[in-house]
Each structure stands twice: as C-alpha cells, then as structure tokens.
Amino acid sequence: MMINISKAVQLLKENDYFIILSHQNPDGDTLGGAFALFFALRKLGKKVKFECENSIPKKYEFLTDALINDAFDDGYVVAVDVADEKLLGDGLRKKYAGKVCLAVDHHLSHREFSDFTLVENKAAACEIVLSIIEKLGVEIDKQIADCLYVGIATDTGCFRYTNTTENTHLCAAKLIGLGAESGRINTAIFETKTKTYAALERLALSGLEMHFDGRCALMCVTEKMFKESGSDETECDGISALPRQIEGVLVGVTVREKAENEYKISVRTNEPVDACEICAKLGGGGHVRASGCTVKGTLDEVKKIVLDTVKESL
Ligand SMILES: [Mn+2]
Questions:
Q1: Spatial distance between the Cα atoms of 181 and 282, rounded to a whole number of angstroms
Q2: What pTM, to 2 d.p., does this model score?
Q3: Domain annotation for the chain: domains and CATH numbers
C-alpha cells in the first residue's frame, strides 16, 4: 500500500525493533539513508540492525563508526532506496522476501514489494529520510547530518545532475548547518580515487566506443580489467558517469561483467533521452537520467541488445 510520510512516521513510532536494509552494491544514498534512520531510531531508544548484501565500500566507512547492530531476531523490516525486491541481492532476498514492512524510496519506477511503500520524487532517498527524521522529532546531530549529506551529494553527482532541485540545496544547507562536513565529505567521495580504481578507469576508457554519430558512448568493464587493475565492484560505483561526459553524447552506457554471461548495464542520459525507458525495456528501471538493468548473454550479444534498445530512444 502506498503511504505518505506521516503514516511512515507513525509506523516507525509504533515499533521497537528494526532491521534496516540497503540495496546490493550499495551507494551513498542507500547507505546514508539507512544509517541516518538507524541512528535516529536508536536515539528514540529502539533496537536496530543494519543489513546489506555486500560489504560497505571503503569511501563510506567513515559513516560506520557507531554502526553496531543490536542483538535480536525478528524486527520491523525497512528498506531504504530499494526500487525492487530483487535489488536486495540474492542473500537478503532469500531472507526477507515478502517480509519487508516499509520501503522508503525515490525511484518512480519502484515496484512495490513491501506492506507499506513511501515513494516521493526527490533527487535522493535521503531527502525523504530527512523529512521522516524531522517528523519523528529526533534531534539531528552531526553523525546523522553527515549520513544524509552523503546520500544527497552522491545521488546528485555533487549537485551537478539535473535531478538537483531547490529542495535538494535546502536540505543540504540545513544539514551543513547541523554539522555535516560538506567539504571533507565531497573530497572523500568526489575528489579521491584509489590507485586500483584509477587503473580500472584507464583500462575501461581505453576501450570506449562511440555509436550513432557520437550520440551514444559505450564502455565495458570486464572481469579481466578488474583482475589487471586490482579493483573491484565496491569501488567503482562512479564509473558509469564517465561515458555521458563526452561532448555530444546523449546516452552513456556502461556494461559491467557480473558473472559469466551476465552483465550489469548502467545508462546515463542527457536531455531529452529517458534512461528509465531504455532500462525498463530490458527489465530494469531507475530515474529519467540514470537507470540500470541486468542483461544475460555473451559480451557481444549484450552490447547488441543494449545498443538496439538505445537506438529506439535516439
Ligand atoms: Mn538513491
């Protein structure tokens, strides 16, 4: 059932044990939102656990100092920034399929999988979580402010993407006023690359392909590149931003090898192309400028399927 913020706040107030879930291959928004909610609920004296399919990327570890799970079994399960049950990842899905009580999300392509669903069209899930925490009556301290700022900065590409609104900046301003260290956070997230990630980026960019008169740029990240660079999935959530940066490109595609004959596709678009429309045709979804899906086949087959779909939108 779709609900509004007041109802979500009521549900959070009514329960005492919480299990908060992020999506697989977590980014700053799903982690920042989940952690902020975790710390806010704990401030209300509730017992809280956090779970994610994958380990937390190094660049977000500075948010986890106080993230120590309470010990209990069953709780009220809340998913943050999870657009689809399958995005929980195979392990968490096995554990929590059909048991998620509340989903807080900002993807308009959200496929309902929880008892109660709160979806708002905001740049980041953290904008919604901020409203929730305010309505819960929890005082936002530096720790919570840092978490929420991380989410908002991540999902807007540090306030550069077109999803950035007046509300996004107002939320960020408020969080900075409450102690969020914006400069330090932005340096850590946007201005720092590990050596292994820098090597991966070089390898991937060297194979960049241009299609459809330069309107589409496609880049592959293969298992071989991961091995050669020493990088891995946990540090390359920013890589899919690269193909769209090239002048004249309307659709930037990143094809990332997940398993044998299975590829994760990230689509980033410039106006007027709808990334969500492209990915929805391939069984995925997301936002108008940034979406994703998974396609099976050999690398050549996958590239052809994706490019044929992109072509329809150009
Ligand atoms: Mn998000």
A1: 39
A2: 0.91
A3: 5-190 (3.90.1640.10), 195-313 (3.10.310.30)
